[in-house]
Amino acid sequence: MFSSGASKVKVMLVGEQPGDIEDREGVPFVGPAGCDTVLHVPAPAESTIYFEDLVPGRVFELGTLVVDEAEMVAFAERFDPQWYHVDRARAEASTWGRLIASGFFTVSSLMRMYVDAVLSRAAADTSPGMENLRWFAPVYAGDELSAALTVTDAQPSTRSAELGTVFLQWQMHRGTQLVLQMSGRGWFIRRHPLIAPAQPPLSPLAPRG
Fold first, then answer.
1. What is the CATH number for 154?
2. How far apart are CA 170 and CA 119, in angstroms?
């Protein structure tokens, strides 16, 4: 949307993409600036898990995996080349006994399990981040790891009426031994979005906030 005024000037103010209020008023630069809310968040066509399904206390079993040594070492060589991840002789001579996996390799493996078991069938948006990450034991090639996800809380999202914020905790075990635990949040699309309060149209002459 272009601003009004003379076109043959030394400096021209081009303007912004029209928003809802500009469309109603037919005048540029009215209403709040920027994108304060998400107008629409589409859910994937095959979604079966929505925000309303993620009630506190619900547990998802994420399955198991066996740590592949070639993948483990390749990851460390590329992203975390500390000696106990990549120097076989030195690791075998140390108290570790042999190469141990990068903790970020273990987290990435857990993330893949989470995507396959939950996010691939969920109406999920992005995540605002993690609050806690702990590694409790080293992981070795050949280890069989199991993982589970627990919903600890769920609240309306301040980002959009179409989203809810879900608080999550992941755990990964080798047998009965806890090797990794992390907690964080995820945004999930509501099956039934909240109704956002309507805002009255602003006058073109009204000051902007």
1. 3.10.129.10
2. 14
